[in-house]
Amino acid sequence: MSPTAPPAQAPRITYGTVLGSPYVARLLGGTLTGRLPNGMAPVAILLWATTSGSSIAFGGLLSALYGLSSSVVQPVKGRLMDRHGQTAVHLPAAVLNSALLVTLPLTGPYGGPGLATTLVVAAGLTTPPLEAGLRALWPSVLPDARLRHAALALDTGTQGLLYIVGPLLVAALASAYNPSVALTVTAVLGLAGTTVVALAPPSRRWRSTPSVGTLHCPVRRLTSPGLLLLLVSLTGIGFAIGAMNVWSIAIAEHHEQDMLSGIIPAAFSTGSFLGGLVYGRRTWSRATTDQLIIASAAFLAGWLPLATQPAPFAATAAVAVPGAFLTVVVACAYVTTDALAPAGRTSEAYAWLILSIGVGQSAGTALAGRLTEQTLASAALPAVGAAFALAILLAARRQLRPAGHRPPGRHRRPLRGRHKTS
Predict the structure, then answer these.
(1) 1.10.10.10, 1.20.1250.20, 2.60.40.290, 3.10.100.10: CATH of 225-395
(2) pLDDT at 218 over 60
(3) Which of 241, 255, 264, 330 qualifies as a FRET site for 353, CA 20 to 30 Å off?
(4) Can you name the residues that pair with 208 across neighbouring β-strands?
């Protein structure tokens, strides 16, 4: 080779290459299937409650309790995974969750509201922590940083599709059969998807590197300033999403077009999916912290047109813009969390990230619900949440950069025989 010859370029990453890597398609497909109950169960529970003679208010309460209980317990499950492995947590949780969902319709008129509430809360508490688990697996499954970057973007971008496919599937099952069948299918899909993941060799072999603490070198706590500020900022991201969901209902009522309440969130999720595909195919020269801040600024800018109270078609197109940057924000947040979390606590840190977004989403939903009659305020709320997130990230810019340049996935043991088929 001539000494002046240009260096050979690395081969371009494609999603076919990512999905063709050992175990990737199985883990991603199993996780998406196992997480479908997150989009199906709240709707199925609401429909079951109303067709069983309960009020819409009580059905809505049960639906909200399922989502809230599922989010609140995520850090506990993350810590259990760090200590005992993924299979030991995933499988028991999936069996219990599915059994409780199947049992709910069998209570009929005998158990009353108290038993129904208990079963729903217990089912929420036992949802398998598949999302945090999958993020913890990527470094051991894909040692190549570029493949891992694409897989994380693909993984994050597809999450929004769960909340499009899930409710549509429940509606179809409830219409063709009844809500009890929808709950049963929800339980079966959750158990099947979780089993596919939990029995995969990468999940069975995964162990978090233990945090070694001594009298002179204590175990690090999960409370570094950078990580805490990152989690606080993500509540603003969740707030924007929750407020957008309620705003879509308000604009649907204002224009007397009921379909808008589903079309607008679907456009947002579609934008997230497409944005993830674009982001994952490119290699970015900027540091992850810079990518996170830039994407957060674009996320904020995307919400600003809503303050003009656009017409339905324009509103639907507008929400796809912040949706496109949501995947980038979340993917960068996961990478930053991995860098800031102490060894042996990464699954737990991921779970706190998920909880932070969920808490913000609940707050955004609650506040937007009280402001639905004030159209301008309702339309501005998503931008308020996004502005809060960006302000925290800008203030925490220094703390978000890890002290050293630790390679991603430094907390995991490599898989033996990773490239062998099971």
Answers:
(1) 1.20.1250.20
(2) no
(3) 264
(4) 412
